[in-house]
Task: inverse folding
C-alpha cells in the first residue's frame, strides 16, 4: 500500500483527462468493450488500453473495473471512527490498514481522527470486526451504519 | 454452465483484464464461455450490484485535496426533507443519514463535498447553508491523509 501513502497531485494529459472523465460510469459489456469505448471517444483500442494501463501503473486510478454495491450483493458496509491521542494515530492506522475488512481509512482533523469503512460479506461480521478492533486497539469504535441514502453518484471532472 | 455470482465477483473485484477481450479472459478463468460472462456481468449491472464499471479514481492524485465530510445535527422531523435538499446540491457528492451516538456524536446527517481547495469548499458550504436556511449545528472534517482506498472486497 506504499504508493497510496503519496498524495502528490499529478498533471494529466488531455487524453488522460478524456479517459477519466468518460469512463467513470459505464463501460460496454460486449465482446470487444475497449474497441467500442474507444470508438465513442474517437480513439483506437490499443491507445485506450495503454492509457488505462499507464494510469493504473502510476496509481492515478486504483483499478479499472466494477464498483460494487456490496449491500445488494448480500454484504454490508459500516462507517466507523476512532479517537486516538495525537501520537498514537499512526500505529492505530497501520493496524487498521492491515485488516482485510477495512476498505477505506482516512485521517481527519477532528477529535475523532481516524475514519474508516468496514466492508464484510455478512452484517454480523461488521460487529465482530468492530469488537476485534476495540480489543486490539483499546479504543472504543464509533459505529455509524447508513440508515438512509439520499444520493450517490460521485463524478469528478478533471 | 451457470456462473456462480460469488466466483464472478471474486474474479473481477480487483479489476478487468486490460486486453481486447477481457470477458473472454475472465471466462477462461471461470471455465465458462465469453457470452456467459457477458450475460452475468450485464445482470449484475442491471440489478445494480455493480454500481459503476470503469475507472476508479484516486481523488487526491487528481487534485481533489479538499475532501470535506460535513456533518449536521438536523431535527429528526425534517431530516429526510433536508437530506433530499442537500443531495440535490451540485457540490454535495454523497448524503447519508446515520445514527447519533450521544453524548459523543450528535450528528445524524453526513455529506461529502470534494473540491480542489478548502476555501472553495467553505464557500460552497456557506452558500448551501444560506440557500437552505440551515441554522443547525454542523462540523467540517477535512481528510489530511488517505491511508487506504479500495472497493468493497469479498474474501
Result:
Amino acid at each position: 500500500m506504499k504508493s497510496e501513502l503519496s498524495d502528490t497531485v499529478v498533471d494529466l494529459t488531455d487524453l488522460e483527462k478524456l479517459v477519466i472523465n468518460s469512463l467513470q460510469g459505464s463501460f460496454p459489456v460486449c465482446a470487444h468493450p475497449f474497441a467500442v469505448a474507444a470508438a465513442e471517444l474517437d480513439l483506437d483500442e490499443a491507445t485506450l488500453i495503454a492509457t488505462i494501463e499507464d494510469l493504473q501503473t502510476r496509481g492515478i486510478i486504483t483499478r479499472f473495473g466494477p464498483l460494487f454495491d456490496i449491500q445488494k450483493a448480500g454484504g454490508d458496509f459500516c462507517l466507523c471512527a476512532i479517537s486516538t491521542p495525537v501520537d498514537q494515530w499512526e500505529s492505530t492506522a497501520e493496524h487498521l490498514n492491515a485488516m482485510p475488512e477495512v476498505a477505506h481509512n482516512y485521517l481527519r482533523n477532528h477529535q475523532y481522527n481516524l475514519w474508516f469503512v468496514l466492508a464484510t460479506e455478512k452484517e454480523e461480521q461488521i460487529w465482530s470486526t468492530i469488537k476485534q478492533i476495540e480489543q486490539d486497539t483499546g479504543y472504543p469504535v464509533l459505529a455509524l451504519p447508513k440508515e438512509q441514502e439520499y444520493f450517490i453518484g460521485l463524478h469528478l471532472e478533471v | 454452465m451457470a456462473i456462480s455470482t460469488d466466483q464472478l465477483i471474486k474474479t473481477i473485484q480487483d479489476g478487468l483484464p486490460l486486453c481486447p477481450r477481457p470477458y473472454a479472459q475472465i471466462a477462461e478463468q471461470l471455465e465458462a464461455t465469453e457470452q456467459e460472462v457477458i450475460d452475468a456481468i450485464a445482470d449484475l449491472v442491471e440489478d445494480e450490484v455493480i454500481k459503476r464499471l470503469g475507472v476508479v479514481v484516486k481523488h487526491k492524485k487528481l487534485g481533489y485535496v479538499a475532501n470535506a465530510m460535513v456533518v449536521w445535527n438536523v431535527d429528526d422531523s425534517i431530516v429526510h426533507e433536508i437530506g433530499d435538499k442537500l443531495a440535490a446540491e451540485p457540490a454535495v457528492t454523497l448524503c447519508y443519514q446515520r445514527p447519533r451516538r450521544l453524548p459523543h456524536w450528535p450528528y445524524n446527517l453526513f455529506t461529502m463535498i470534494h473540491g480542489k481547495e478548502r476555501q472553495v469548499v467553505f464557500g460552497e458550504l456557506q452558500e448551501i447553508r444560506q440557500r437552505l436556511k440551515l441554522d443547525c449545528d454542523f462540523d467540517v472534517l477535512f481528510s489530511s491523509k488517505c491511508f487506504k482506498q479500495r472497493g468493497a472486497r469479498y474474501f
Observations:
- Chain A touches chain B through 80 residues (CB under 8 Å).
- Confidence is low (pLDDT under 50) at residues 1-6 of chain A.
- Chain A has two domains: 2-57, 76-144.
- Residues 76-144 of chain A form a domain with the Alpha-Beta Plaits fold (CATH 3.30.70.3460).
